[in-house]
């Protein structure tokens, strides 16, 4: 009778420990999944924030480029109006230089 009681108590203890282990394992699995979901959400938020900053930076660069182009065109127009002969001479020299470069490349 003592043997049966000891065996029964051991089985009860094994069932109880097994149940607890299953519970802990299930909780760990749920916790890991929750942690993974949290990390994934954090990564997505960082990606969205970075994309937003990149778009803002690109918009600022485009605005700056347009302003610089406008100022450059104003200066070019201003100087071309004051010195038209110099502009024509510079365009002729640039054209001759390009023609010389193209012809020397064709000879090789």
Automatic annotation (TrEMBL):
Keywords: Membrane, Transmembrane, Transmembrane helix. The chain crosses the membrane at residues 85-106. It comes from the Bacteria. This is CsbD family protein. It comes from Ancylobacter defluvii.
């Amino acid at each position: 009778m003592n043997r049966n009681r000891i065996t029964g108590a051991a089985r009860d203890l094994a069932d109880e420990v097994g149940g607890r282990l299953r519970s802990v394992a299930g909780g760990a699995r749920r916790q890991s999944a929750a942690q993974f979901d949290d990390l994934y959400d954090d990564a997505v938020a960082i990606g969205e924030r970075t994309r937003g900053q990149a778009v803002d930076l690109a918009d600022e660069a485009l605005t700056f480029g347009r302003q610089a182009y406008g100022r450059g065109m104003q200066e070019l127009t201003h100087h071309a109006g004051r010195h038209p002969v110099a502009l024509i001479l510079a365009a002729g020299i640039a054209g001759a230089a390009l023609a010389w470069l193209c012809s020397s490349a064709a000879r090789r």
